[in-house]
Specification:
heterodimer; A: 86 residues; mainly alpha; Non-ribosomal Peptide Synthetase Peptidyl Carrier Protein, Chain A; globular; B: 241 residues; alpha/beta; Glycerol-3-phosphate (1)-acyltransferase; seven-stranded mixed β-sheet; 8 helices; 7 strands
């Protein structure tokens, strides 16, 4: 079972690699749009990157607009990973 | 000596450049206004090209040398992407001979007095006011008219190494257009963002061979194209520093 720490680490690694963020930008409270500057196309790309990273489907049956901060994103992936595990 | 040159650049060459922009617009405006509405946007874009060539001439006078490294442009329309570090960058693209460009820019440029007439008249696209679907549709119409599409994918002049956002590359992928990466170096030293002082600097403009969407397949193809174009441009940019 993947731990929350591992999810945070892997998510941040993917965001740094694909979107060139620096460690000090990736605070759990950082807002994806306003603080990290991710536009709608970036959000779609981010979802694809994370799906490939974690092997889960983020796009179907969920409202991704409810994900505002990085913390929301970690929570969302953690929830999906648990469901996937079961 | 450097200080004297800076004063000369700022007051004499800068003044002449502003004079050129104002006078050419005043002279051309009635002719553009009289052009039939079907052909007016093309005429405005041609006028912007001529104005830009004039500004590149003044940049050459103010510089410590201005060189242009060209490539054969791809056949048909293309998407041009360049790094962005100065207000002068907008004009430098004319040095490669692209004379029918649709710029996709941020909304604040459309609010500038005097400029907004030209922006709207040429059919440039406000990226903040227009939805991605509308941008795609408008660009499709533009390429049918033989236009090239121009983006500064960094979106801002603040950080010269800022990430290339993938919108331009997504558009190229959707419309199956080649991407032409262009590196602009030296303009940040000559006229950085927020400054009115024109310093002498060596300017190098380099056009790279086109990148084709067919070589970047998969769901993240446009992201990979953005990364490849940025690497090419920034490797060259850093070598010139």
């Amino acid at each position: 079972m993947i731990t929350r720490e591992e999810i945070i680490k892997q998510t941040n690694e993917a965001l740094k690699k694909e979107f060139e963020f620096k460690d000090d930008q990736l605070l759990p409270t950082a807002q994806l749009r306003d603080d990290l500057g991710l536009d709608s196309l970036d959000a779609v790309d981010m979802v694809v990157v994370l799906e490939q990273k974690f092997g889960v489907t983020l796009r179907q049956g969920y409202d991704l607009r409810t994900i505002v901060t990085l913390n929301d994103l970690y929570d969302f992936i953690e929830k999906l990973a648990r469901t996937h595990q079961k | 000596m450097e200080c004297l040159r800076t004063c000369f650049n700022t007051f004499v060459i800068g003044g002449a450049a502003i004079g050129w922009l104002v006078m050419s617009t005043l002279i051309a405006a009635p002719f553009l206004w009289l052009t039939s509405s079907a052909k007016r946007d093309r005429a405005v874009r041609k006028f912007v090209y001529i104005q830009s060539r004039g500004i590149v001439f003044f940049m050459r006078l103010a510089s410590k040398g201005l060189s242009v490294e060209k490539q054969a442009r791809p056949e048909g329309s293309c998407v041009i992407v360049a790094n962005h570090a100065s207000a002068l960058d907008l004009y430098t693209i004319s040095a490669f001979g692209f004379d029918n460009i649709i710029y996709i820019t941020k909304g604040w440029v459309f609010k500038l007095p005097f400029f907004h007439y030209v922006m709207n008249g040429a059919g440039y696209i406000d990226a903040e006011k227009t939805s991605p679907e509308q941008i795609l549709a408008q660009c499709k119409t533009a390429i049918e008219k033989g236009c090239d599409i121009m983006f500064f994918p960094q979106g801002s002049r603040k950080d010269p190494h800022a990430r290339f956002k993938s919108g331009a590359f997504y558009l190229a992928e959707q419309l199956n257009l080649p991407i032409v990466p262009v590196a602009i170096t030296g303009t940040r030293k000559m006229l950085p963002a927020g400054s009115f002082v024109i310093k002498p600097a060596k300017i190098v403009l380099k056009m790279f061979p086109a990148i084709y969407p067919k070589d970047y397949t998969g769901e993240l193809g446009h992201l990979r194209m953005a990364q490849a174009a940025k690497k090419q441009i920034m490797d060259f940019f850093d070598k010139q520093l």
